């Protein structure tokens, strides 16, 4: 056991920090839902957030791109430091729109805009005031290729995104997320609304994307966490109970609650 822990610590030390969460608390109105969260996300690695329903996974995920700013009464305390420039994502001086370009998000249900395939991917570039057609064309193709969708849609870029299948729509949302060259992508249960084959495609895609960027994924599937992630954080009642490399979390967790959860004793 000591050997295994030593190995997992050295694996984690071998990675470079992309994001560091320091003493994060989050409140919906007067209710504190995240409690003193400390967590590091590594560059070019996938980190999974697991834990029973209502423990705060989605709430934590949404802090990374300031999604909570969209609703009044929500409040953050603490820091989320994005490297390499060490900016605090949560600082009021930092523009949340710019944060969302650098930290993009893919939701549970595919949510394309009521626009063409092309315009869905071009959206973030237009928000960034990019107007040069040749640059937008190039970025749209690059993002669609990155999301393994280009070959299926290259001859129908002006079709409505709603005409795509559910799995294709989710890859389109990934392409939309990729178009602004994000440094971190947040996936909130990205395969819970699509079939097993489409799920496999998305998981393969995550594997490819991590060659370039950091990824944080919320999943209810222990199998998925074990397949796609390098590191796993187990949350319970708004706290991170345990964080380690995924293999250790699943085979040799330090906390009884983690062990019970990964063995399916509660959920
Ligand atoms: N907009 C909101 N206003 C008030 N409370 C909220 C809001 N959204 C979530 N909560 C509460 O915050 C807690 C954490 O919810 P959250 O959705 O982050 O959990 P989760 O771990 O992602 O759950 P699930 O796995 O079921 O999606 C829950 O008690 C939930 O009821």
Automatic annotation (TrEMBL):
CDD domains: ABC_PstB_phosphate_transporter. The keyword Amino-acid biosynthesis does not apply. It comes from the Bacteria. One of its GO terms (cellular component) is membrane. The keyword ATP-binding applies. Residues 19-262 form the ABC transporter domain. Pfam families: ABC_tran. InterPro entries: AAA+_ATPase, ABC_transporter-like_ATP-bd, ABC_transporter-like_CS, P-loop_NTPase, PstB-like. GO terms for biological process: phosphate ion transmembrane transport. PANTHER family: ABC TRANSPORTER I FAMILY MEMBER 17. This is Phosphate ABC transporter ATP-binding protein. It comes from Aerosakkonema funiforme FACHB-1375.
């Amino acid at each position: 056991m000591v050997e295994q822990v030593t190995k997992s610590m050295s694996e984690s030390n071998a990675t470079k920090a992309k994001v560091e969460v320091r003493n994060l608390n989050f409140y919906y109105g007067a209710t504190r839902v995240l409690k003193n969260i400390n967590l590091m996300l590594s560059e070019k690695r996938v980190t999974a957030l697991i834990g029973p329903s209502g423990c705060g996974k989605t709430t934590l995920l949404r802090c990374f791109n300031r999604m909570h700013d969209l609703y009044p009464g929500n409040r953050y305390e603490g820091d989320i430091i994005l490297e390499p420039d060490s900016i605090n994502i949560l600082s009021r001086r930092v523009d949340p729109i710019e944060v969302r370009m650098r930290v993009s998000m893919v939701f549970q249900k595919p949510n394309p805009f009521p626009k063409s395939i092309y315009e869905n991917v071009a959206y973030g570039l237009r928000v960034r005031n990019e107007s040069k057609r040749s640059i937008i064309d190039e970025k749209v193709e690059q993002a669609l290729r990155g999301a393994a969708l280009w070959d299926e849609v290259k001859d129908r870029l002006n079709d409505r995104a709603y005409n795509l299948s559910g799995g294709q729509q989710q890859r389109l949302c990934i392409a939309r997320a990729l178009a602004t060259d994000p440094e971190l992508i947040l996936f909130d249960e990205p395969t819970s609304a699509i079939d097993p084959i489409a799920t496999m495609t998305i998981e393969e895609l995550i594997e490819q994307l991590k060659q370039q960027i950091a990824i944080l994924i919320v999943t209810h599937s222990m199998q998925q966490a074990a397949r796609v992630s390098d590191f796993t954080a187990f949350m319970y009642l708004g706290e991170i109970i345990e964080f380690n490399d995924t293999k250790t979390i699943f085979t040799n967790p330090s906390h009884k609650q983690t062990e019970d959860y990964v063995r399916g004793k509660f959920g």
